[in-house]
Amino acid sequence: MNTPSLPDQIQTAAPPSFGQSAIQLIRSMPLLVRLCSLWIVVVLGIALFADFISPYSYSQLDLLARLRPPAFWGGSSDHWLGTDELGRDVLSRLFHSVRISLLVAFISTMLSATVGVLMGFAAAHFRGWVEQLVLTLVDFQASMPFMIIALAVLAFFGNTLVLFIALMGFYGWERSARIARGLTIAANEQGYASAVYDLGASPWRVYLRHILPNIASTLIVSVTLTFPEVILLESGLSFLGLGVQPPMTSLGNMVGYGREYLQSAPWILLAPSLFIVVTTFSVSMLGDWLRDLLDPTLN
Q1: Whole-model pTM?
Q2: Which of 265, 231, 238 is nearest to 254 (CA)?
Q3: pLDDT at residue 41 greater than cutoff 90
Q4: CA-CA to 153 of 20 to 30 Å: which in 3, 9, 25, 223?
Q5: Nearest to 62 by CA among 95, 99, 93
Q6: Can you state the angle between helices 191-198 and 173-188, rounded to 10 degrees?
């Protein structure tokens, strides 16, 4: 009798490919989370290809076509979402507003997460007075209304896009700092961090190559919760005229100009408002689902 070879005796299942893992992840999503994820993909596509899909230039004026209603409101198909007070196409301005608002929110959220993680690492590494200083700054940031601080800074220093993004980058950093500090202290008490230190690795290598990947899932969930808050904050400041300045446009900027025509031309305000509500809701729902998926205490 022939003895079967070792590969015939032991059959190991091949690990699922990236495509199979993605399909399994999508199937595990509730229906509402799938719809929210689809909306986020659509919004990202609009932001990336706004120049190609916009029927007009977002700053093109046509005073003869001012305040025309949308096509579904009895208007012409030349302007699917109507025109504003200067005859500019609302749909084209909406596409470019999505791009600017997402750009501001994304860069600001990344700055906030970076500042928070670095402050959390510093507090966990040095401890002592450095940790007390970081915790004091965290408590101070959490106790101060950020909108008041933003209004004061923009009113005093003026408003440029770079300053505005940098200011938004200080929103929510205390949340990332607390998470990074707590998880880093826990990681330092585990064996793998001490082992890497004993091998002669520098603190930067330990934190960036070993600790950060292990706490990244929790930080990602925190970022998904901060991102919609930054969109709402940018929209509020732009609504007050202290955010994105003309000739650029943003969602909050469109809402701010549209409030003066709420009774005569409500479509100017409704389109960007709906985008803000649906986008922030979608990102928040996706963040909640990721938190439930990645938090082992909830499984």
Answers
A1: 0.81
A2: 238
A3: yes
A4: 223
A5: 93
A6: 80
Quote the DSSP letter at residue 297: G
Question: Counting runs of H as helices and runs of E as strands, what totals does the chain give?
Answer: 14, 0
89 phi, psi to nearest 5 deg:
-70, 120
Cα end-to-end span (Å), the chain: 50
pLDDT tens per residue, range 57-73: 888 888 888 888 898 88
* φ, ψ dihedrals at 127, nearest 5°: 55, -160
Instruction: Please tell me what DSSP assigns to residue 242.
Output: S
Q: Which of 138-142, 167-171, 250-254, 294-298 has the lowest mean pLDDT?
A: 294-298
- In this prediction, residue 91 carries a pLDDT of 92
In terms of pLDDT, which residue wins out, 98 or 196? 98
Task: For residue 97, give the nearest of 151, 59, 69, 41 by alpha carbon.
Answer: 59
Sequence-distant (6+) residues with CB within 8 A of 202 are: none
CA distance 45 to 40: 9
User: Which one, of 111, 116, 97, lies nearest residue 164 by Cα?
Assistant: 111
Give the count of alpha carbons within 13 A of 270, CB side only.
12
Task: Write out the two tokens for 252.
Answer: 């909050």
Residue type, 62: D
pLDDT over 70 (residue 24): yes
Helix (H, G, I), strand (E, B) or coil at 83: strand
For range 71-87, the mean pLDDT: 85
Contact 251, 275 (CB under 8 A): yes
Q: How many CB atoms lie within 10 A of CB 284?
A: 16
